[in-house]
Amino acid sequence: MRHDISSSVRHVWMFVVLVFLLTVPFAVAGWVAGAQIVPGVPLTGLAVVCPAVAAFALTFHASGTAGVRALARRAFDAGRVRRKAWFVPALLLYPALVALSYALLRTTGATLPDARVSVASAALLAAALFAGALCEELGWSGYATEPLRARWGSLGAGLILGAVWSVWHWTALLQVGRPVSWIAWWTLGTVAIRVIMAWLYGHMGGSVLAMTLFHMSVNLSWQLFPVAGSHFPVALVAVLTAGMAVIVVAGGRVRARSPEGARS
Question: What is the pTM of this model?
Answer without folding.
Answer: 0.92
